[in-house]
Design brief:
Blueprint lengths: L3 E7 L3 H12 L7 E6 L6 H7 L3 E4 L5 H11 L4 E4 L10 H11 L3 E5 L2 E3 L4 H23 L9 E4 H7 L12 H8 L5 E4 L5 E3 L7 H18 L5 H9 L1
Parallel strand pairs: 1-2, 1-4, 2-3, 5-8, 6-9
Antiparallel strand pairs: 4-7, 5-7
Helix pairs in contact: 1-2, 7-8
Length: 240
Amino acid sequence: MTSISVVIPAKDDAVMLDRCLAALSGQRRRPDEVIVVDNGSTDDTVEVARRHGATVIGEDRPGITAAASAGYDRASGDIIARCDADSIAPPGWLERIERMLEQHPDAVAITGRGRFYDLGPVARAAADLLYMRAYFVTVRGAIARTPLFGSNFAMRAAAWHAVSASVPRDEPELHDDFDLSYRLDPGERVLYDRRLVVGISGRPFADGRAMVRRVRRAGTTLAEHLPEENPLRRWWHRAV
C-alpha cells in the first residue's frame, strides 16, 4: 500500500499552521505522517505542531530550501507531499494526489495552484493572473517542463532521493520549489492538475519589501542554474 508523508517547513507561523494542520486532519485520505520542520521559530509553532500530533524536527540553517530538504530527508512515505504553513488543503487533496500518481506511473510529481483565501475579489483575480499563472508560464519556459509550486505539490520519494545531494542547503536566498523543479531530470514528467487546488494566504502582497525579495530570489535561483541549464538546451533535451 502506498504511504504518504506531508512536509511543512515553518517559521513563526503558529496561527496559520494551526489551520493548516486542522485541514490535514480532515483529509479523506489521511496522511501516514506529517512532518513540521521548525526553522528557528520564536512563537508557538512547535507547540502547535505537537498538539496536532505532527512529528517536529529542527533545522538551524536559515531558509525554506534547508528546512524543506530536511523534511524530505526525514520522510518515510513512498510519496512526499509538500505544503506551506499558510496552506489550507481541501478534504480530497491527498486522495487526489494518490489517485493521480497511481493513474500516471510515468510521472515523478504532481502539482497544482493556490487560491488566495484572504484577498478581495479584484485583488484575488489580479494575484491569480500576475503571480500564480505567471509563475507557471514563465518558469515552464525556463525549465522546459511544468514547475512545482511549493504550497501544493507531491513527488515520489525516489525522485527526491535522486537529487537530494545536489540541493544547495546553505543558500537561503533561493526559491526552493523553482530550484527543485530545475533539478528533476528534464525528461521526467511532472503533472499539472487543474483540480488540485489549495487555499493560500495573500500575505506576500501586503509587504512590498517581501515581494522585492521574492523577485530577487528568482534571479538567484536562475543564476544557480545558468548558463549550463539554459532553456534552449532543456527544450532540446525534451525534443530528442
